[in-house]
Design goal:
By secondary structure, the protein is mainly α. The chain is built from 10 helices and no strands. Helix 5 packs across helix 6, helix 7 runs parallel beside helix 10 and helix 9 packs antiparallel against helix 10. The mean pLDDT is about 85.
């Protein structure tokens, strides 16, 4: 293919992705109530009644548009990844395709697992954040800030759970070896804990521990997987 043909193909893939996002964002806008109820779940487990308060007449509309955008991006992710795959595939060799599919699937699964873990531990994070200020404080949560926190936590956990994919890729590329990763174990523990403490937006010990422990397990798993693949 010529450069112009490549660009035309890329434009077609981008247009399909944008159309998918627009359609699914519209769907998310329609089912806004169900999505908001789902995201309020962790808050409702620790607060009764669980009500979010808006402070301006346009806050409700902006919240609905924001949820529609996030929902459309999440629902359209499989379509976007598929279009990226269809664009990249012709340039890959047979052995590269053999590795690419498992890496792509494992990346999606790990991201979803990380987001699900963040959602499950968020009630404990809320309880800690409510208790740290003392019993005399009364919480009145703004929906934008609440949703911003939980979505940021889910996104950070999802991205952090790509850690083993990155390590195994580096091992296959010969940048690092399983033996080198084993010798770095003590530093890895320190850096993983430090990373979890810095990157966790809620800054609560439950979220930091829930992020640091799986990352260290992934580190050890990457060493084992790297040894197997090298053989």
């Amino acid at each position: 293919m010529t450069l112009v043909e490549h660009l035309s193909e890329l434009r077609r893939r981008v247009i399909i992705s944008v159309v998918a996002f627009s359609v699914l964002a519209t769907v998310a806008f329609v089912v806004y109530g169900h999505i908001l109820s789902f995201l309020e779940g962790p808050y409702c487990r620790v607060a009764h009644p669980c009500q979010l308060y808006v402070t301006g007449p346009l806050d409700g509309l902006s919240l609905r548009i924001e949820i529609a955008a996030y929902g459309g991006a999440f629902l359209a992710l499989p379509v976007v990844l598929w279009e990226m795959w269809r664009f990249i595939t012709p340039g890959l060799k047979a052995n590269e395709k053999r590795y690419a599919i498992p890496f792509l699937l494992s990346s999606i699964i790990l991201f979803c697992l990380g987001a699900a873990l963040a959602f499950l531990i968020f009630p404990h994070a809320l309880q800690w954040l409510q208790s740290i200020g003392g019993p005399t404080l009364k919480e009145i949560y703004n929906p934008q800030r609440y949703l911003g926190l939980i979505l940021a936590l889910m996104a950070i956990f999802g991205i952090a759970f790509e850690f083993p994919v990155v390590l195994v890729s580096l091992e296959l590329a010969g940048v690092v070896s399983p033996r080198t990763l084993s010798s770095w174990r003590r530093w890895a523990i320190f850096l993983i804990v430090l990373f979890a403490a810095i990157i966790t937006p809620s800054s609560d010990p439950f979220s930091m521990t829930a992020l640091a422990v799986p990352l260290y397990v992934f580190y050890e798993m990457s060493i084992v997987i790297g040894r197997i693949l090298k053989r």
